[in-house]
Amino acid sequence: MYTIATIYSAVRHERIQIADPQLEIVDLAYDTRKIRNGGHSLFFALKNVRDGHLFLQDAYQKGVRAFVVSQQQIDTSSFPEANFIWVHDVLHAMQELARFHRLQFRKPVIGITGSNGKTVVKEWLTQLLQKDKRVYQSPKSYNSQLGVALALWNLSNDYDIALIEAGISLPGEMSLLENMIIPDVGIFTNIGAAHASGFSSKQQKLEEKLLLFKRSKQVIFPSRYNIGAFLPKMVAHFSFGSEDHDEVRILRLEDHGRLDTRMQIAYRNEIATFTIPFRDKASIENILICLSALLFFGYSLDAIAHKLAQLRPLDMRLQLKTGKNGCSIIDDTYSNDLASLQIALDFLFQQQQHRRKTLILSDMEGLDDKLRQKLVQLLQKQQLDRVILVGAGLSFLLDQLSGAVELFASTEALLLALQSMRFQDESILIKGGRVFHLEDVSKHLVAKSHETVLEINLNALEHNLQIYRAKLPQEVKLMVMVKAFSYGSGSYEVANLLQYNKVDYLTVAFADEGVELRQHGIELPIMVLSPDEQIFESLLAHRLEPELYSFRVLQAFIHFLKRRKVANYPVHIKIDTGMHRLGFMPSEIEELISILRDSVEIVPVSVLSHLVASGNSQHDAFTQQQIAVFDQCADTLEQRLGVKPLRHIANTSGIVRWPEAYMDMVRLGIGLYGVDMSNALDLEMVSVLKTTITQVKRLPAGETVGYDRKGVLHRDSRIATVKIGYADGYNRRFGQGVGTMSINGQLVHTVGSICMDMCMLDVTDVIANEGDEVVVFPDVMKAASAIDTIPYELLVNISSRVKRVYFYG
């Protein structure tokens, strides 16, 4: 907690305007949607995709009275009680403040970097150390220029050690991170292909990452990456590998059973053998990093053997699942600390599908009096309807929280009580440390379904949204297509995220899709693409705005509104400029104007058309013609009607290739979900369809597999049956070896015909066992091409019986 006077002394500033120099700051804010403690928050007006200066008034209304800004012209009379600090660069100011705070921390800080494995190593080390030490870790993957600053802000001398993750994607970034973290000890995981496009060579990327350790006393690293020569001379090495000079020498690695690996290592004058519950190379290397770190910290080999045996795979993503009785379950049961609890609570209150909010929370490791006080303050800021506590160590919360609060001594006690507890139409956050196994509570509350799942990465969706937003001028509005179950990705779950990110409009194909969104708390304007007379009542009841494309629908809707005595209802006028699917023809504009001029029942809030081939350069002349025709029609409507509706014609490809088509608003569709038909953007795939192997059997050459004996085996083979078929949306055309799936990173082909609920794969040449996870579309573009279709078809045809699981963080 620092005063404003201390803060403006700690950061380079150009000028200040101080109303209360003794105002105490507890939280750093940069997003008005996440402000919970406005009176003690310092708001940083970051200029990212959206300029934070546009939200100063919003922050002030939420109680914020301290701002760091770079925009010189601000009418401070609108903020009579506010403190302003003007700086050249707002993000750099936040980083300076984070550095100032980090220098108050007197315990060891461990900086972790590398291409992959950073978060896993950080999480595992936290698990391994927290029985003996109070460990602070940067939350989730807060490893960016902004994330590291926020992570360091939560440091306090209540902890014995801090683990801070650092990630970069461009040259010049690591020096800024190092200047904040100033790690006493460094951990380097590996060097690989991640973010390779930002660097001229692998060596440049390596040298940039190693800048994190320029002031460290010691660096722990795998010797096989040969980084020793690039480390500063004053930095001591602590390496592991098979070389004689390695501090930790690997003598033997061998498979031990179906899931385990046995490793033998030498350290100083001792030899030890460990059995670890992993076989993949990445996990083994991450465990060797953790093992080396524990040795460096002074743990004995015997103690380490016991600790490593407890490690389990990490699912580090917060999951949103469909629960029983209309509930939504947020499963975040792999770790529990104050920083990650705040992130999970933010996500809970992002969900608008239910009014009621419930928290199930386990005890935390290392809670002393100060941390207890911080936990109380954090929970008191939330508007929770019910809190269920697990672990006697949380009993101090019983008289500190309002609403219904229950305490259970153990997870087992809670599981027994769940049989009689009622959960109905509420969002439930389950947040717990791994030792409490609250995933068992999640399993009890989640609705049972088909085991094939579609994993939807909400971080990737948010990333893609920002990629497209960054291409648009600030004044251009954004309409997002959530039709067809959001291209297979879900309805209100995706819409909630879009609403949270303040898009301007949503679009659905049919009214019932819009009704579902309204029933789950979506308040954004929603355009309906294909209205007809049967759903007019539903449009009115749920504030849905129809796209009007023909005189028949137009006249019918006007007459409907007349009977209901409704005036000025918002509608969208569709012009056919060449798609020839729906819309008024340019030759019909005069008649359209005549009807609109005489009608008080409707008001055109937008006029739109659809580009036929905006992504195909062969048809650029036609696209230009469409834009010209549309502008002419829109101009005529404006001039003759005396209104100025929003104009929009640019679709996803139009956003990429046709800036002149941005107009007042653009419509983002398939690109949001990670499919880039232009191959011009750094998008992330949002959806991954996964299933599992039900059975593996050995069959001799000459046997046949599947219906009609179409899968003929030409060699002795291992055949795996997986839990997905055409009823799940896996097209029958993928049969006969056309379809390709991935098991443990290895590509395999289908065998025989695709069945309704299952299909078979040839796993003769790969490692595959019953229960293994299978990625159905390793590359959705290639999969679509294999059956002569487009990715849209594959995504929207994934059956609703396939369970959607949403990940965040």
Tags for this model:
single chain; 809 residues; Udp-n-acetylmuramoylalanyl-d-glutamate--2,6- Diaminopimelate Ligase, Chain: A, domain 1; UDP-N-acetylmuramoyl-L-alanine:D-glutamate ligase; Protein-Tyrosine Phosphatase, Chain A; 5 domains; 9-stranded mixed sheet; 8-stranded parallel sheet; 29% helix; isomerase
Task: Please provide a written account of the structure.
It comes from Sphingobacterium paludis. Its EC number is 5.1.1.1. Belongs to the alanine racemase family. Substrate binds at residues 581, 756. With 809 residues, the chain is of the alpha/beta class. It folds into 5 domains: 2-91, MurE/MurF, N-terminal domain (Udp-n-acetylmuramoylalanyl-d-glutamate--2,6- Diaminopimelate Ligase, Chain: A, domain 1, 3-Layer(aba) Sandwich), CATH 3.40.1390.10; 105-308, Mur-like, catalytic domain (UDP-N-acetylmuramoyl-L-alanine:D-glutamate ligase, 3-Layer(aba) Sandwich); 322-448, Mur ligase, C-terminal domain (Protein-Tyrosine Phosphatase, Chain A), CATH 3.90.190.20; 455-673, Alanine racemase (TIM Barrel), CATH 3.20.20; 687-808, Beta Barrel (Lyase, Ornithine Decarboxylase, Chain A, domain 1). The chain contains 24 helices and 40 strands. A 9-stranded mixed β-sheet has the order 9-10-8-11-12-13-14-15-16, sandwiched between helices.
